[in-house]
Design goal:
Helix content: over 70%
Shape: globular
CATH superfamily: Farnesyl Diphosphate Synthase
Order of helices and strands: HHHHEEHHHHHHHHHHH
Number of strands: 2
Number of helices: 15
CATH topology: Farnesyl Diphosphate Synthase
Length: about 300
């Protein structure tokens, strides 16, 4: 077991403690809204994105405690996106992580407001965070994360995903959707530590290459779990994509081709990290976790 994997329980506790501190410290206008926000964030998430940020920090020798405020902000943004994804006007899912989705538990209006509040809380916490470099570097980091969830990132990918229903897309089009709707926020988590110190162009490109490959692999693997019917692992209905005729990789190109593509992307991601040598073991471990979903 690698040093990083041994520290995952400790890292997850630190992330969860920080999330609870942020959630309890924010001023809510109603008890129900506060409960919906906490329910959405603290309901058993694997914390893949914040852990990926910590792994990236370890790879380039940045203190993990320095990036924790940004790692938890990324998790708040991820939680906000899941609430929106599950709404009837989007994917219309009633289960998430084995529990009723936020709009089923609290109603659509409260769920929408909880998502909006989590997004705003994420940016508030990043703006207030202590940053060892200049304020301009902190603003650049926040701007990069903002872009990852907007029309050039997650929201744009979700729009393309909704438009893809009942259409037969080619592999590159599907992977473009995946990179936008899933990969961009994961990439933001991986690149965030690069704003804490100067890196060579080669090192930054290596992290970008890793994040692009593993971001797409992450979503294809999610689709495979759904296609193979493991509801316990995915935490929601395994019929979700199939019932909507969505452009999911296994539905369009088959399970075997999807598995081959995940393997190729995983190998490409790990190959991108050669420039870091053994320093990149934490990111390699996270890549393995993403592929095997064992955390």
């Amino acid at each position: 077991m690698t040093l990083f994997k041994k520290k995952i329980p400790e890292f997850k506790k630190s992330i969860d403690d920080h999330l609870m501190m942020i959630l309890s410290g924010s001023e809510q206008s109603s008890k129900e809204l506060s409960q919906a926000m906490e329910y959405s964030v603290m309901n058993g998430g694997k914390r893949i994105r914040p852990l990926m940020m910590l792994a990236s920090a370890m790879t380039i020798d940045i203190k993990t405690e320095d990036v924790i405020p940004f790692a938890t902000a990324i998790e708040l943004l991820h939680s906000f996106s899941l609430i929106h994804d599950d709404l009837p006007c989007m994917d219309d899912d009633s289960m998430r992580r084995g529990q009723p989705t936020t709009h089923i538990k609290f109603g659509e209006a409260t769920a929408t407001l909880a998502a909006d509040s989590l997004q705003s809380l994420a940016f508030e916490s990043m703006a207030k965070a202590k940053f060892p470099k200049s304020k301009s570097a902190q603003l650049d980091l926040i701007s990069m994360i903002a872009k990852s969830i907007g029309s050039a990132g997650m929201a744009g990918g979700q729009s393309l995903d909704l438009d893809s229903e009942n259409k037969k897309l080619d592999p590159s089009s599907v992977e473009n959707i995946y990179m936008l709707k899933t990969g961009k926020l994961l990439q933001a988590a991986i690149l965030a530590p690069t704003y804490f110190r100067e890196l060579s162009k080669k090192e930054v490109l290596a992290l970008m290459g890793f994040s692009e490959s593993i971001g797409v692999a992450f979503q294809i693997q999610d689709d495979l779990i759904e296609a193979e019917g493991d509801e316990n692992m995915i935490g929601k209905s395994v019929e979700s994509d199939k019932s909507k005729n969505k452009a999911a990789y296994p539905i369009l190109f088959g399970v075997n081709e999807s598995k081959k593509r995940v393997k190729k992307l995983y190998e490409s991601a790990c190959s991108s990290l050669k420039v870091f040598g053994e320093s990149s073991n934490a990111l390699r471990e996270m890549a393995k976790i993403i592929i095997h979903r064992k955390l």
